[in-house]
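During the no-cost extension, the postdoctoral fellow (Dr. R.K.) reprocessed legacy sequence entries with the updated structure-token encoder. One reprocessed record is reproduced below for audit purposes.
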Amino acid sequence: MEHTPSRHPRRRPEDVTPGETPWPGPDARMRAIEAAADQALLAPSVHNTQPWILVVEPDHLALHADRRRQLTVIDPAGRELVHSVGAALFNARVALAASGWEVRVERLPRRDDPDLLAVVHAVEGTPDSHLAEYAPVIPRRRTNRRPLASDTVPGDVLTELAGHAAADGTLLVPVVRDEHRHLVARLTQQADAVQNADRSYRAELRRWTNRPVFEGDGVPPRSVPQVDVRSPVDMPQRDFDTRAAGALPPDPGDNADRTLVLLATPTDDRAAWLTCGEALQHVLLELTRQGWVASPVTQAVEVPLTRNRLREALTPEAHPQMLLRIGHAGDVAGAPRRPRADVVRNSSRPAEPPRIETPRPSARRSPTTEPPAHRPVSDGRGGTTWV
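Re-encoded structure tokens follow.
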């Protein structure tokens, strides 16, 4: 596709406001692509694994899956890994639009490289003003697992969210009927019990909630509530407090009448998973912009039996991908992030100094290594978190 060269006078990229086309030139484009990589790194990911590798090129950003960070117990097919990369892809699209570039995306561009999930090109043309509006929202988005207030999301907001999801090829279904709400609650309880009966599942959870601070990943105590596993609740959250050090208020569990939405796709392949990740981040950023908080509740989508039951009841023509709980709650701290130099390849920027927040042990622990046995481990509800 040919694009008419820009006729804007030469201006510095920092003088270009979102929605404008920058003056053409390799330096401006490269700076925009580097900035897109920065914003992609802030995307949510399953267990905060950040399972991506970003490669910067003069006219595009390539997003690869990092299979070393795949959760092999709860996500053996890599569905949630691809969701995570899709969320990073959406952030990159937003950043390029905000820098004044039109965006062209190649999804799954090479059959011989299945882990190359997307290539995002910055081209001269008309930037997407709707996407650009989300640029200041990206750093504010949080996965919030605090108890939700009793108010529910208005219908017009849910309709707007459904439109945004549809733009990214995904169906958003509000769970509004009482029988469906109670069904989702029962299926979540059932899946929660199935997962926690699996020792390998609990071990995988512990690996990603006992991470060294300098790794910049995983789920830290500041992001999780305390959970009383002896008190049954309608919609159990996941118990990530494997150190018995959760910093958020105790979790009373959600009632079945809290706002829930289900994201689903017409097919259940990598292409659908990727666009669902884009739709997920689109929805999360719109909620953040409007002052709502959200967090995934994915137990029932991860267990095949309960996932099939969800599909039969709520989306018989589509495949369930993600359940979100939405409401109002107090703020939470941001999640840790991996050092940029560990994730971004071929960058023109000098590597930042190492972020040493605590003394380094004599050897860095592999993500597949068990934590020391003497650490306290909860017997409670474990599972997937996106932070």
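The domain at 155-327 is CATH 3.40.109.10 (NADH Oxidase). The chain has two domains: 13-140, 155-327. The remaining legacy entries will be reprocessed before the final report is submitted.
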